[in-house]
Amino acid sequence: MFRIISFGKTDCGLRRSNNEDAFFVKPEFGFCLVADGMGGAAAGELASQIFSETALEVFSTADPSHSDPAKLVQQSFILANGRILKHADEIPEHKGMGCTAELMAFSGDKFILGHMGDSRTYRFKNGQLKQLSQDHSLVQEQLDKGLITTEEARKHAMKNVILRAVGVDETPALDLVRGNLSAGDLFLLCSDGLSDMVEDADILAVLASTALLTHKAEKLVELAKAAGGHDNITVVLIEIYEA
Prior knowledge:
Helix content is 33%, strand content 30%. By secondary structure, the protein is of the alpha+beta class. The protein has one domain: 4-Layer Sandwich (Phosphatase 2c, domain 1). A hairpin with a 2-residue loop joins strand 6 and strand 7 (128-131). It is globular.
């Protein structure tokens, strides 16, 4: 068995007056999440809130001894997707609202990650940083096809065109990533307000430092703001210890 320590931080950034991101760190219910709203001001903020509260509802009412965390993750996305679509139908001015989301659940020595959009999840392990999620974006699709380089992707004019999000399609495709936990693992869930502004090498340097988890989260937000802070910035850090 493992002990999980987690910490989250969100910031408006330097160019936005409101924060459309949301996060939960709920190790007592076996999950953590980051959601990044889209669809303009109140609608984007509401979409990420609906996703977060739906996940909390699903996980907090489940019986941990008889629940499959993968099914809880899927249920959270499906329920939130339907609720956001229903809200947009009822309030036409919120049409097009939705959110990207990272939802990581834990059970024993396993983790499962649900991913949709261009928010990201990384794993820092044995001095190496690995991106566990794959961006659902037009730029990532072009990158996968070899049409552009990694450097071109970072500066692409259409880097914010998302191909998948919660609350946009009736039957969205959800990525599920499964893995084993080990003592010393450090996971980072973040909105694109961090990953668009801060290079992986700089993220790695922060995660590899000996700073406290809270200080690492604060440092990542500081780096994103120092690079321009063009978007809301949200980070959730999850560290795994031997029980």
